[in-house]
Design goal:
By secondary structure, the protein is an alpha/beta fold. It contains 16 helices and 16 strands. The chain has a five-stranded mixed sheet with strand order 2-1-3-4-5, sandwiched between helices. It has a four-stranded mixed sheet with strand order 8-14-15-16. α6 runs antiparallel to α7 and α9 crosses α13. The longest helix has 34 residues. The relative contact order is 0.07.
């Protein structure tokens, strides 16, 4: 007798179809023993019969409606009543390798099939409930949830830190907090030869998924959902969040919880305007053109003010050139040297730490404790509301108020953390002197570009490139830096120590640049 066959497995963890291959082999052996021949196999691999997802070959089987099919057991074919009724409509006979035959064209066969399906549905629901309890207990213990899954980037399967990936992730996180774009961080990981946990190159989406996962901060998040009717798609269901609880993870965190919150605020753009594109040079997008503007040969009396970008000559010499009219160009290396010398002179003056490391007067420990209390209280209120039969939609107004309170706390914490721009330099810098300047320069060169740019914009409210005489040697006095209030305080400290006599406000420093041909 010629038969069709159907094979299915809910989860194919290896991706090698071992489960369906085993079913296929058992069916072929059964057919050989009983004198049958399989004319066609219908196969749905890695698809559950109870998830509601479409099973392509199951649908094709119903459409073809063969007179008889053979399966390993009935639950490979169906496990819910609505699918059973569709199979009954075909009137086909179902042969089971492990349980005998079912003639669905007879009342007796239909009754048996309905009974078996009812118990299969019950088994699925019981298994789901047991799994939910198991997941909740595992979350409360802080167990790492990837024990039987794919290893997450930065961690080993046992929850310890990966020796290469974890430090690399910390490095790119620090760069992002310092102002780097996520695309820049992706490029750094790819250039280091590090792949995602699925062996692919990094892109913004895959890296953001890692950066926004509390797993890297050692936090286990347990979410409980329930299925509700989809208002936009009648006849279908969607998952609705019922509760969310955080537990300390039993694995080693890659970054602290505080840094994770700072990273989150940075990624969402709070307190930090988004850049149109990532900068590749120290003064790109910072320095402006100071050439006096003329209109029909009459001086208008204002500076051009156009931003400068970097370009290269045919000889490979980099220069900063006005982006408005291309009418003001300076040697990029020499221009940057002047600005860097002035930065180092200011931040290495004795006593600079008291000015630059002056964090806001914030009770940071109290803020962090307050945040923990708010989150804990909200979780309790949410659970109480659910127990009283209040839907998640009805708590939306209160949720927004809760999130607003957390956002205000996070903003203060972020402001405190943001002031750490200079905080870790004082253990590295030696106070400025001709002998220690090379050491300070070495430390400066090791900083990420984004952090250097933030330091420059913190110290100087403006960097203006004034035009020089055509054909003249590079003049450091044409690089004009206007002090910020912070830099003005440092300049006063320099005066007190007799280092340099520097004008307050818009400053032209001499003796710090090299006198070489422009």
């Amino acid at each position: 007798m010629e038969l069709s066959a159907y094979v299915r497995i809910s989860q194919d963890k290896t991706g090698e179809s071992v489960g369906v291959d085993n079913q296929r082999a058992a069916i072929l052996k059964w057919c050989e023993t009983n004198g049958h021949t399989v004319t066609e196999f219908y196969e749905d691999n890695d698809i559950s019969a109870t998830s509601g997802k479409r099973r392509p070959d199951f649908e094709r089987l119903l459409e073809d409606a063969p007179k008889a099919i053979v399966v390993w057991t009935q639950d490979r074919l169906l496990r819910v009543t609505k699918d059973l009724e569709r199979v009954l409509d075909t009137g086909m006979t179902v042969h089971q390798v492990n349980a005998g035959d079912l003639d669905l064209a007879t009342p007796q066969g239909q009754a048996i099939a309905r009974t078996v399906t009812a118990w299969a549905t019950y088994e699925v629901e019981q298994k789901a409930d047991r799994q939910k309890l198991k997941n909740a207990a595992s979350a409360a213990k802080g167990e790492h949830y990837w024990r039987e899954g794919i290893r997450p980037f930065g961690h080993n399967m046992d929850g310890t830190l990966h020796p290469e990936e974890a430090p690399a992730l910390v490095a790119v996180i620090d760069r992002i907090i310092d102002g780097a774009a996520v695309t820049t961080a992706c490029r750094a990981l790819n250039e280091a030869g590090l792949k995602t946990n699925r062996g692919k190159d990094w892109h913004s989406t895959s890296l953001r998924r890692i950066l926004t996962n509390k797993r890297i901060a050692g936090i286990r998040v347990h979410r409980v959902y329930k299925e509700v009717p989809d208002k936009d798609n009648p006849g279908h269901k969607v998952k609705e969040l019922v509760s969310e609880q955080e537990y300390p993870g039993a694995w080693k965190e890659i970054i602290s919880a505080d840094k994770f919150r700072t990273l989150g605020l940075t990624l969402t753009g709070r307190e930090r305007p988004r850049k149109a594109k990532s900068r590749e040079n120290l003064l790109t997008g910072i320095a402006t053109c100071g050439l006096t503007v003329y209109d029909n040969y009459v001086m208008v009396g204002r500076e051009c003010g156009g931003t400068v970008g970097q370009s290269r000559s045919n000889r490979g010499i980099a220069s900063y050139r006005c982006s408005e009219f291309k009418h003001n160009s300076k040697n990029a290396d020499l221009t940057e040297e002047v600005v860097i010398d002035r930065v180092l002179l200011l931040i290495t003056v004795q006593g600079a730490e008291s000015v630059l490391n002056n964090r806001p007067d914030i009770d940071i420990a109290g803020l962090r404790s307050k945040r923990v209390e708010k989150v804990s209280a909200w979780s309790g209120e949410l659970l109480a509301a659910r127990a009283a039969g209040v839907s998640l939609a009805d708590t939306a107004v209160y949720r927004k108020a809760h999130e607003a309170e957390l956002a205000a706390i996070d903003a203060e914490i972020f402001q405190y953390e943001k002031s750490s721009l200079f905080s870790d330099l004082w253990s590295k810098f030696t106070y400025f002197s001709p002998e220690t300047l090379p050491e300070a320069r070495r430390i400066w060169d090791a900083l990420p570009l984004e952090r250097k740019q933030r330091i420059v914009t913190t110290l100087f409210s403006e960097v203006v490139l004034m035009p020089g005489s055509r054909g003249a040697r590079f003049d450091p006095q044409t690089v004009v830096t206007e002090y910020s209030p912070v830099a003005t305080q440092l300049q006063m400290m320099l005066n007190q120590h007799g280092r340099e006599e520097i004008e307050a406000g818009r400053v032209v420093m001499s003796g710090l640049g090299q006198t070489v041909q422009h």
